[in-house]
């Protein structure tokens, strides 16, 4: 992890050069060190893009902005892909754009909701952090255990991610119609929580209504 972080930093420090044409934001670090109040730089000839790279894991978010050549953009994207491959719980996004200051850092008070995201048992063992949309207020996690009524085969499904207040307020109805439909569900568990990264782990707090609804639906469809 440390080695890849150093490589990413070295690749992106190549963006930070002085010159006289394109102008881009220049900074590297966490949100205190790299934000919309950070300085700007005039790029050297040959640097045709403004670049941004955002790494996110349980240790926090790391940002790098600067000038870039086309090869710099390709290299940063390759390093991001390798980092996510070798560190499944790390997300990394590298992007380039054209135009003065087109890659703009977040403001100092940027405080997004972050939730773990996954869609299978294997993925959920090494779930990645996702920065939620501004409309998302909660993190959620769902577990269903379904026994198919014809083959008697049990299937487990797992899911984690971001959710809106409306989705969580209506979670029983959603769970009833979406995850407990068609087959006999022996367990249907969903939990929404308001704190960032609160949907880590595998334990669930299940409402009695959810369990009753799943059991009732299973009986009706036998």
TrEMBL record:
PROSITE patterns linked: LY6_UPAR
Entry keyword annotation includes NADP: no
Coiled-coil features, chain-numbered ranges: none
SUPFAM superfamilies: Snake toxin-like
InterPro entries: CD59_antigen_CS, Snake_toxin-like_sf
UniProt superkingdom: Eukaryota
Residues annotated as transmembrane: 200-220
Signal sequence, renumbered to the chain: 1-21
Protein's name in the database: Uncharacterized protein
Organism this protein belongs to: Desmophyllum pertusum
